[in-house]
Amino acid sequence: MISKNIMENKAIIKEKFNNSDDLILYQFDTLGDTEVLLVYINALIDKKALNEFVIKPMKNNLVSAYDIESSIYVSEIQEIFSINESIKEIVDGSVVVYIDGIDTAYAMNMCRYDKRSVAESTVEQVIRGPKESFVEDIYVNKSLIRRKIRNHNLIFEQFTLGEMTNTQVCIVYIKGIVNKEILEELKARLSKIKTDAVLDTSYIEEYIDDSPSSLVRTVYHTEKPDVLAGKILEGRIGIICDGSPSVATVPKIFIEDLMDPEDYYSKPKYSSFLRVIRYLSFFISILLVGSYIAIANFHHEMVPTQLLITLAGQREDVPFPSLLEALIMILFYEIIKEAGLRMPKNVGQTVTLIGGLVIGQAAVEAGLVSAVMVIIVSAAGIAEFVIPHFREIIVIYRILFIILGGLFGLFGIFAGFAISAFHLLSIKSFGVPYLFPIAPYDKEAMQDFLRRETIKKMNHRPKYISEPNSRKRN
Amino acid sequence: MQNEKIPTRQLFGLLIVARLSFSISSILALHVPPHNQDQWVMVIVACLYIAISSMPILFLANRINKDTVKGFVTSIYGRPLSRLMGVLYLIYFIILTIDAIILQTELVTTSILPESSNYLITTLMLMVCIYMTSRGVIVILRSVDLLIPVIYSILFVLIVLGINNVDFSLFLPILSDSTINDINKGALILSTLYNDIIIIAMLVPELKNKNISTRVFFGSLITNMIILNIVIIITQGALGIEYARHSLFPFLIYVRLINLARIVERIAAVFVVMWLLTITFRINILLYLATKILRDIFNKGEDDKLCLFIVSTIVWIVSIGITVMRPVVGTRNDLNNYLAIIFVIYIIIIPLITCMIFLFRRKSISGAKNQK
Amino acid sequence: MLGKKGVYLLIILISSIILASCVGYIEISQLAIVTVTGIDLVGEKVLLTNEVIVPTDASGQKNDKGSSALYTQHEGDTIFEAIRNATLTFDRKLLYSHNEIIIFGEELAKRGIGQYINFFLYDNEPRESTFMLVAKDAKAYEVMGINEGLSSTFGMYLEQLIRNHKYTSKTRSLNISEYIKYFYQRKTPVLGVVQVKEKRIINPEDTLKGLNHRDVLDVEGGAVFYKDSLIGYYSGEEMIGFNFLVDEIKNSIIEFEVPDQLVDNDNKYAATKGKYTVLEIKDSKTKNTLEIKDGKPNLIIDVKLRGVIGEDSKGLDLRYLNVLKATEEACSNRIKDIIRKTMDKAQKDLKVDTFGIDTLFHSKYPKEWKEISNDWESIFTEISYDINVETYIVRTGLLDMPTNVEKGENNAK
Questions:
Q1: The domain containing residue A216 runs over which residues?
Q2: Strand order from edge to edge, sheet including A154-161
Q3: Which of residues 105-124 of B touch A (CB under 8 A)?
Q4: Where along chain B do its domains lie?
Q5: pLDDT tens by residue, B106-155
Q6: pTM of the model
């Protein structure tokens, strides 16, 4: 409860904040000799506005304590009845006004702090189409979404998660398109989250993921407002987390990771072709090395004679068995990749250079690895970068397939394929089968699968994901 | 969304894929009389026999409709006898699973991994299938949607690539060389291996639309036989009638003969991988049904892993015991006699008895239901 | 810390390398790629000669021709034993899945090849599309190792010779699967042959070395089998007839002589020299029909072919349709001659039906076939036949008149 005595309040707040240095407690008398206490955190407040629109009118005009709302020039003002609430507001970046003699405080949102301005996304780059990306600030992000979808049915629902961080988390969806079952399920899962810190959307992702132990992500994330808008318009639900530029959407199905916003900004036939390339890259990056090991060591008859002779000639002096050779190559490939990612940009080039030279050329010339293996591994490596969303799956599965191929030949590849296919088949994201438009097959959703139909012809929203029987146009 | 049901499309696809695993491996239809270019006539005749022999179960399948299989059988036989029925059919499904597993082991070890031990291949395959089966019937059926396009496009490409080896000039005119007796005999033998109807009957309660057993059965029968006939005709054309008759895996040889610009040659391994996908469907569904019966006997739920473990251990032990001792595909002739007897017992005699009891007790059964 | 799955993964990783050896994991570098197999008899034993590719040489690092393959010989009672015996004297396991050609020594071919090709069908490794050849007048190993082509090894050289059969039709390519196919049904397969021929010395270096000649391979002709033993050979020309009869003509050429009066048609032009006109066949179709006339089987051979004039030295004036027609007829007659010669050879000399006429009989008269099937070879030798050839010249090349003609007395135009 807020005490009527302003000094008491002051003491409590001071104690709650442990005398933190950035807490400002400014006490003064107004025109009508009412004592007023302003409490805020130094770094979070727009001081100019505070002086101009709050302190000045108070000092000059405020006569009675009950007139406060009419005398100051702040749009976002809210009454507070408890100390805990006021503390929450202060932490959030509001200025809380305690007035002597009344047991109500007022929280004015005057939050202003330095934030990154909206810029082009460095992760998801497009040639054509909107280039802006989300920033770390939730208000900016919300505004970006609002500007994309100017509709009163667009709904934001606020949650506060993290017992220590008190992070603002917001779900966004469009009423009428969103599938209510999924919405309820998401809300239930969000309310079950018990954690002390939420520093990024990925923290929430892990809590609401359907298959946390699997490598497969059942939550999609993007940094681009246009992508998010597209997802929401298909009935998905976005999860925005303050402090993170990546916004999560659920439910997520397999093909979303193989799509690209630019698919919708290019000609349909060309984007269909690009999608085929992406699907191919997916399989190449996972299966190529394993299949090569399998074929070269078990199914010699499959290799054309001339090629087999060439391979045999190359392998003649290589000391390691090719399974080991492949594993070593992959290991070094991963090391170089990781080094290239983590290095400062100007050093990164050196890493690539040394990596390329040492691992590639020198190793072949020294006879430690065969040239074919270098080609195969780097082809698989390049293909991986076409579909960055799948990196986790690709890296791990590739190694598994190498081992399976080296142990059992194509039979092992088959076993791995069958098991991983069934794994993907059995996963669901918020009740939607992960491989949705293929299995279970759905004719309408297949319009936007391998082949992208023209936007004109895509009339149906995906079954299961959006409200049943909803159409884009009537 | 919790109670997902199986669409007709998936059941239909499953039946075709599961049958395909036999149609393109050790093609029994090439090893039965009349042993000449008239095999395809024999296959058509066999359709008739299959249709007749499947009648009793088909009749029952159409009556299961609202009930579970367990409830249905219990309502006919009463509790203790229905347990016995469960045990009998459990054995049947285990035999069928073992048959498929052994066929798989033999094809893999003779075609792509001649150096590997049967032991290892059987174990790995069974492990894969156990994992798949443990995902549940919905997922098994759902995988049909994903894998059928893969399987069929590979099969189609293989057939097209090898088509220039096919030469019909050695064929004699239709029916010039065979007697009706021969054809009948072959058709009878062939029909005793077509037990798809039992799969349909077992899956009826899981279906979205429960009144389709007859349509699915006849549709899949005709489709399967058309595919079988295509395979028979092209392999006979490519290998010659006698070579096709004497090779254990005729379609494998057909694939081995493919040569495209001397780059795509000897792609038997690709075929075997595709074939393995088809046989996993067969093993999966049989293993699942066997497990389901065991679960029903012990009143266990859908997720019970112990029953799956028991069934697969039996399958594992028996099939390894057989594969390390005897070739099975090579000695099909004798083995088929046993399978035929089992078929007659399980697909014709027991269901016929069940039908009769059902008809006699119809009133009391429906009365009992109404009381509930 | 790693968790259960991590531990499993580690175990798999470590055991993978250990396990790999017991599943049939064979590095390419542990294998010897066999490309040609020669089979001979030494006494009662099989002598197997293999051409094995030396990988480092063949991959182009050392381009010293002739050394990119080596030859191994092994003996055994059966083919399989001979192959396994190879490991006693040769350091790598022989890989048969790239074996393209099997050469049978003549002696073995006469004794019967049936029992020696079983291995290639029972085992998983060898391919069914392996070509079969008979070494004419020689042991199989005697023809092996000769490489006078551009290919890097003898095997590839010989394989290319076989694959080029369509340009001459004087030989034949038959692989094991086709052999089996025809053998079960026709009993008289015709295989390709290979023999050694001499080639004049051209390269002065060879003369310095003191060589008189070099050897080349020649695949002209065909080896005729009855059941599984060699009974005779077709010559190159007879093989053209044979290929016409079994409808395997593709791009070969026909040389023929045009009657003289055709050239001097209206005394406009006269050829100076030259005799032959050559037709390049573009496509050809043979249809054999058999019918029983007065209790005797009569074979009607209908050949239809389309071709292009490729060379003419007789001086045909092909601007006139009647000349064209007469040329076509001359070509047809030549083909009839060729076919007749082959039929004569088959009926009178070899006395076996190599053309699959028994299948024709069987399919047309199944009842009669049962009575005479055991006696077919003697019936075949008595069989009468009519040959109808229709030639269509569809193009005449870039000229309508050869260069070796002069203007005659009555110059038109």
A1: 138-252
A2: A154-161, A167-174, A237-241, A247-250, A220-222
A3: 108, 112-113, 116, 120-121, 124
A4: 8-365
A5: 888 888 888 777 888 888 888 888 889 888 888 888 889 888 888 999 99
A6: 0.86
